[in-house]
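Comment thread on ticket #2218

A.B. wrote:
> Attaching the input chain for the structure job we discussed in standup.
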Amino acid sequence: MKHIIVGTAGHIDHGKTALVKALTGIDADRLEEEKRRGITIDLGFAHLQLTPSLRLGFVDVPGHERFVKNMLAGVGGIDLVLFAIAADESIKPQTREHFDICRLLEIPRGVIALTKADLVDDEILALVRAEVQELVAGSFLEGAPMVPVSSVTGAGLEELRKELARVAAEAPEKDASGHFRLPIDRVFTVKGFGTVATGTLVSGSVAKEQEVELYPAGRRLRVRGVQVHGTSARRAVAGQRTAVNLADIEPAELARGDVLSEPGVFRAVKQVDCRLQLLPTAKPLKHRAPVHFHSGTAEIEAEVRLLEGTAPLRPGGAAYVRLLLRDAALLLPGDRFIIRMFSPVVTIGGGVVLDVGAAGKAARARLEVLASADAAERIALLVRETPFGMGMAGLVARTGLVEPEIAAAAARAPLITIWQPQPWYVDRTWFQAARERMVETVREFHRKNPLQPGIAKPDLRPPGAPPFVLDALLADAKEIVAEGDTVRLRGHTLVLNQDERQARAAIEGAFQQAGLAVPAVAQVLAKSGVEPARARSLLQILLREKQLVRINDELVIHHSAIEELRRMLAARKPARFNVGTFKEWTGVSRKYAIPLLEFLDRERITRRQGEERLIL
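C.D. wrote:
> Ran it. Output below, let me know if you need it in another format.
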């Protein structure tokens, strides 16, 4: 079944609530004060099964100028507007303001109802029709159905239903495959159930027993139950008026403007970069001007920072701006918003969020890319701006796109994909330059350290880069080879000159002749015939070639002595022995015996058992 949300709009007392009741049989005025005063103060809700395959959910908004902020809380998630203009009064101030709001929010379609048509004659009705056509010329409502109707007599209701069905059939359904987002517009308690929050489900779906997160508080909650248009359901999907029964939270801990969404996916922000359109009727907008910011169901005080100079934005103009919010909110690129003046509190403009990671100076060229419809360009920019790239989770949080959309866009962008448990994307140009720098670093290391096999792998890692970025760079660089924790040029070999060959032989010979009771390493190196730095490099070569075996930091023994020790112990297997016996067998002092026994334990040649050891 297709679910479409219809929002009413229009001046106070132009018959919006009466029209909804006439269409649905549901009185959307739920508050005692609303019924007493005969005006809509807060949001009201109703629904209509228009055809077997189409259900309309109505959000009835107040028309009084004092309650426009409540109107804004309801109009954000609608698919089409039912614009009510009373035939006996025609266009009034809130008619124009509501119309401006709908245009700024880019509501794509609507139906115009000329209400109270029973109170005027045909001539007046024709005049009102002409005035309305002039108002909506060039807008999304130009050419929209315009139906004279009376909620009292019922005249025109059937035609209005047909036009609603036709326009709703053209409206695309909201994306149920997207990330779950439910802006909260009402919170209350139901006896026996507890806390209930309602809203228009603008994206994704929510199911009973699902874990959700409350933004901006960051609190994880469990959904105990779900209702759609007042009926219990296992799951609600995008485009439905939805109520969720939440466990372990009191109504006072929730408020209109909060958003329920995916746990751990997004983050609430206090500043956003946007494209702002100022209404022609507005006053010039100054740099750092305070405004009321409305998006979804939220109303937040904000400050406008003009990003292209500090000269005021002229009426009817458009500009890139940064909005600094007093309170954090869950906002994503593509979210529409409205701004209103502080005094008098009137609508002056609106626009679209471009970037929720706003920081530092924002260049126009950058924002134009983020305003582009091409997801590949936007993702490439975000990846390029971030040192060492971004993972899938980071891109979801910055864009609001789902993973398949990001993967498809990234495949069209100049990016390198590093496959981890989640894909990680880096800019291709950066990756290629980093790879060339790495190869040059290895080449320079060999030039300065000819006796070293290669550079330590951690020394090649760009500071702050994830380890897998280095692994990807190494795998892509065919000129170099990683061997354990050492990286060398593929063609690199050690070539010793004559004095180095002689020194190498002298070092090895000194240890070989000493057996197990070897001299100090420093003493052997001092007698090698080359300077200390080269002597240490030659020692490392012998250790890598396993001609020498390091027992501990201070003790190095020739491999032949170790092999002889292995054979001697193997011949006595499975004997038990202590330190004194080992000293007798080997003829070494305790200075050598203890480190050797610890080495044998590590090599699993022996196993310590109390004060004795067992030959394995």
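A.B. wrote:
> Thanks. Noting for the ticket: The chain has six domains: 2-170, 181-261, 269-369, 370-418, 430-489, 498-615.
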